[in-house]
Amino acid sequence: xxxxxxxxxxxxxxxxxxxxxxxxxxxxxxxxxxxxxxxxxxxxxxxxxxxxxxxxxxxxxxxxxxxxxxxxxxxxxxxxxxxxxxxxxxxxxxxxxxxxxxxxxxxxxxxxxxxxxxxxxxxxxxxxxxxxxxxxxxxxxxxxxxxxxxxxxxxxxxxxxxxxxxxxxxxxxxxxxxxxxxxxxxxxxxxxxxxxxxxxxxxxxxxxxxxxxxxxxxxxxxxxxxxxxxxxxxxxxxxxxxxxxxxxxxxxxxxxxxxxxxxxxxxxxxxxxxxxxxxxxxxxxxxxxxxxxxxxxxxxxxxxxxxxxxxxxxxxxxxxxxxxxxxxxxxxxxxxxxxxxxxxxxxxxxxxxxxxxxxxxxxxxxxxxxxxxxxxxxxxxxxxxxxxxxxxxxxxxxxxxxxxxxxxxxxxxxxxxxxxxxxxxxxxxxxxxxxxxxxxxxxxxxxxxxxxxxxx
Length: 456
Description:
Low-confidence stretches: 3-7, 450-456
Strand content: under 5%
Helix content: over 70%
Distance between the termini: 22 Å
Order of helices and strands: HHHHHHHHHHHHHH
Number of helices: 14
């Protein structure tokens, strides 16, 4: 699909590249999978308190996940910057860049925490839930916002370690901290009788310990290499500048998904429930595809830092094949299991019937989505955030008007919405990313501060 392998590879290199990709992607995949599984455990623990408590958790989770989701650039931008400097051979500067990312996380976390405490009540009440649900959401959030800074530190430290080509340590910490989260929640919610507030306290403690563990690993490495640990304002500003385009990219992706929810909500209750279930399943499968994208970030940054454009192209071609193959596997699994997934999540026969054709459309888009995820990771690893931001805006402008016009068309609104999602959103992103990957302007070598055409 992408003509990126322009130079010959040494004999046997393909298998070596596959091993390198899998070495990073498999632990990343397992770490990504740990989070939703333990979130389900949290929901089960709180759900046994009552429907109102579970609904309150839903509101609180939506607010927290939005904040953390928008700050994912702390992981992505740090991964790319650290990997590039590692490729240059300057481990000290790579770790110094990572420390700057940690300080940026602290600054953003402090502002977000203060804002969250001040705006907590109006944010929750904006959802329009009844008083009981609103009170439970506030009970949870007044503790949970204290975990924002640890969560952002967790993102930044994970980005540093990924840039250093280490995805195993974040996996170990993710599994351990999430397991501790379950234990603490059970003890505080039921043992101590703290209810939904106990779940928030347990989560904050587990997140803080997980963040502390990763920060200790990074700080020890920085000390070994003599990298400075004190805040460096120029370095922090540079990390922020790198993060802004990635933040815009993330906003465009979230805006596109919000458009689909708005359209589904206007179609009716069954359609909205079906759509949310389909989006949940899509997001779950995205973890498998995102694991290869994380490997792409780390390996691309390192290769370009080493000024090896030929290797970068061979890596890109190899990872695109992995993305395509992963998308085929997830697509087939989704299509085959579509008739049985509805009853697992809903007792409504109308939802069951509406879900199957939507999932078949989603399954058909999976192979292209696999390529999109990989190339997104490649360009993030190359530090090409500005292009990704503009590309995201163009895709949003092309997708949103057509998606909003879907209810005016004959046929099933939900199925047509997912067809438009697959063709214009996923397909549009594929066009934007493939076009860039075929060119040379993203192949900036060395520290990434150069201009003009890359060395070949």
